[in-house]
Structure formats: C-alpha cells, structure tokens
Amino acid sequence: MDGAPPPPSPSGLSAYVAVSQLLGLTLLGTTGAWLGRYRGGVAWHSPLQFNAHPLCMVLGMVFLQGDALLVYRVFRHEAKRSTKALHALLHGLALVIALVGIIAVFESHRAKGIPDMYSLHSWCGMATFVLYLLQWFLGCGFFLFPGASFSLRGWYKPQHIFFGITLFILSITSCLLGITEMLLFNIRDERRRPLLLAGAALPTAQYHNCVVFNISERTEHALDNILYREKVLYI
Question: Is 117 helix (H, G, I), strand (E, B) or coil?
Fold first, then answer.
C-alpha cells in the first residue's frame, strides 16, 4: 500500500539482539566486579592504572565494536545515512576507549619497569587495534564522506564486511589471550581464577557467537523471509 509505514522488524530479531546485549552487559559487569573486588579498582597515575586496560579494551574492542556491527540489523528500516553515521560513531567511540586502555598499559609498564609487547596477547592486540583504526578510516572515506564513486563503493563493500567481522574475531581472540595471561599470572590464587574464567571468558566467547550469528548471511536470509511474510500480513 502506497504511503504506508514500513512493517516492524522481524519478531525474532529482537530476541537475538536482546540476548547479545545481555551477554555483553554481563561481560562488562563481571569484568568491573573482578577489577573492583580482586584488583583494587581503577585509578590513573597510580599502581591501579593497569586495571583501566582490561576495562577499556572489553568496553571498546568487544562490546561497542559488537554493537556497531549490529547497527545494520537493528535499524534495518532507518535512513541509510543515519545508520552509517551511528555505525561509524560507535566504532570511533570504541577506538577512543581502546586507545585509553592502550595508554594505560604502556604507562603502567613504564612506571613498574616492565617491558612492553612481551607476549602474544600484546602483539595480537596491537595489530588488531592498528588494523581496526585503518578499517575505520577506510570505511569513513568510502561510505560516510562524499567522493567515492558508486562502483568503487560496491567493490569495497564486501571487503569492508569481511574485514569487519575478521577484526571482531581478532578482538575476541586478543581478549581471551589476555584473560589466559592473567590466569597464568595468578595461577596460585584460587579466589581470582574461577571468577575471571567463568565471569569473563565465557560471556566473551558467547557474546562473540551471538553477534556473529546475528550478522551472518544465513541469519539475514532467514530474517528477510520472516520480514516478507510479516509484510504480506501487514499489507
């Protein structure tokens, strides 16, 4: 019917997104609880400065990056320009928060005389951040700001999607490597290990699974089929 408002998003989409947000908030909550209860909290220019690193990286490189990927699922019927802006804004905010976390760990190492970039977690995390920053600049250049031709955007779009999902997987991998590193540092402390493992590692992995499931091509086709049926009923 001409002039009719668009049908609502498929009913299953709300449940999928709600589960992902519940897992993400659980991850943030358990990370904050672990830092506050077992590591003394977070403070800048103090022995607690290192604790800003895991908190910022989980918030930026995991939770906000995952939410940025979900933008095109949640706002399927909104104006494309607004959706692009929100997508870029969330990624940009994730980068800024992650940068704070990186500065925190470097300054903490320097104050304590600890070498930088000494582990697989360090190198994987830094490579992921640099590539993520490059992906953000390229995405803004191709899709958000005028200048790129339609054919060039069409060529780059599959690459952007592929590398976006790949970088999210790398972020989760870096996060799990960091958790493993902390477990090894505190392997004799029986109080911290169960909370860190069950309260952070498991929600991290499940949040990744839920986000990737929501943005997968198979899920998109399924949602399109549901949306088509609901649109027919709506008309």
Answer: coil
CB 166 within 8 Å of CB 173: no
How far is Cα 34 from Cα 226, in angstroms, rounded to an integer? 41
CB of 201 closer than 8 Å to CB of 195 = no
Q: pLDDT tens-digit profile of 8-26?
A: 555 556 788 889 999 999 9
Q: What is the CA radius of gyration of the chain?
A: 20
Give the span between the Cα atoms of 69 and 129, in whole angstroms.
Answer: 16
pTM tops 0.70: yes
Rounded CA separation 198/221 (Å):
34
Q: Could you identify the residue written with the tokens 């908190």?
A: 55
Alpha-carbon distances, residue 50 vs 11, 13, 59, 166, 219 (angstroms) = 43, 38, 15, 27, 39
What is the longest distance spanned by two Cα atoms in the chain? 69
Phi-psi region of 5 (alpha: psi -120 to 50; beta: other; left: phi over 0): beta
